[in-house]
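A protein record pairs a chain with a discrete description of its three-dimensional fold. The following entry can be read in just this way.
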Amino acid sequence: MMSKSHIPLLLLLFLSFLVGCTDSKTTILTQQQLQQQLQQLNVALQSSASAYTASTNTASTSLTRLPFSDAYLARRHELLNSQLSNSNATALKELSYLKIQERYPERFLPWPAHLPVLKNLTNQTTSAQVEEWLTLVKARLEAGLESKIKLSRIDLRLIIEQLAQSENNSAAFTALNNYLSSYKPRAMPGLQQLPNGKEWYQSKLNFYGNIQASPNQVLAQLASGSELEPIRQLGELTLSLNEPAILTLLGPDCAQVGGLNWRDGFINIPATVGSCQQQLKPYRSLLRVLMEIDIGIHVQGWSTKQAVVALNSRLALNEQQAQQLVNNIIYFPATIFAAYTG
């Protein structure tokens, strides 16, 4: 079993490998070109199969760049190290953030469980490519276990549900299904239970909230804040795993600023929230509670049940809304802090 102390060295070696896979000459792209090429690379990592664009050559892209394959990782590294010819401070900050994210172990968790990646690939690629990706998923998960990188219980449940809905009956499908049937997930859903998880969370806190303070310092600031107006009810508002809760709260009238991160639907969340702060005023008390829950899950190691109980003790929510909020926080760490103003 590989010790946790070996993780930083492995990450450095992996990054060295990526550098060796890219051309020594830096690619020069416009911000729009970079966004388009990142969208094309991540075409399978969409919230629905309908999110594919007709302009994307999915066949050639998927053939050599299945999500989190070595070819995918090398191409992503190459794009993230492009030189932008018409960049602004907002784009450069997001690009710097995405480079930092390469240090962390998401490649060992190659199936973002809240996304229908298998369905997307089945609709857009050949059966041989789908089988190749399923084999990759199993291999990555096995490699992750050696470094104590595991799926959470909610990850495992969502992936098994997606497998159950598939009509795939390939050998790779069966092997992955059998493997997951006896898989022992990590106990808690937050980043803190992954190697370098707290540092990973801090990097997200820095980007989304422009926060250099530690999570515990932020908690103290939240607790010492002035009393706010009564918490506004969510009413019929429905949250999903298609976008961070902060964007749902902003509503459709907020003009979204384009971004570079597939996890955020290629929306620059800090820039978008910054331009629509007024629309969040009715939710200030709610946002404070969600920030506390976010730190509880990803830094203090709360379970899903603890988070739901904490939410229900502070907010008047129905059971479905409470679970939606918790799941959203799990899959979009620290994004809620785009509304943080200190």
In short: The radius of gyration is 20 Å.
